[in-house]
Amino acid sequence: MIRTLPRHSLRPSPAARLAVLVVLVAGLSAGARAQDAAASASAASASAASAHARSHAETLRHTHLVRLQEHLEKPEEDLHRTCRFESDIATLPPEGVVALTFDDGPEPGHTEAILAVLGRHQVPATFFLIAEKAKAHPELAAQERALPGAVIGNHSWSHPNFHDIPVEEQTSEVDRADALLHADLGATPLFRYPYGNSSCDTNERVHTMGYRIVGWHVDSCDWGFDGPKGLTAAEALSCGVLPAYRQDFLGHVVASVRAHRGGVVLMHETQHISVDNLDALIVKLQAEGYRFSTPAAPEYAASLR
Ligand SMILES: [Zn+2]
Question: Which keywords label this protein (predicted)?
Answer without folding.
Answer: Hydrolase, Metal-binding, Signal
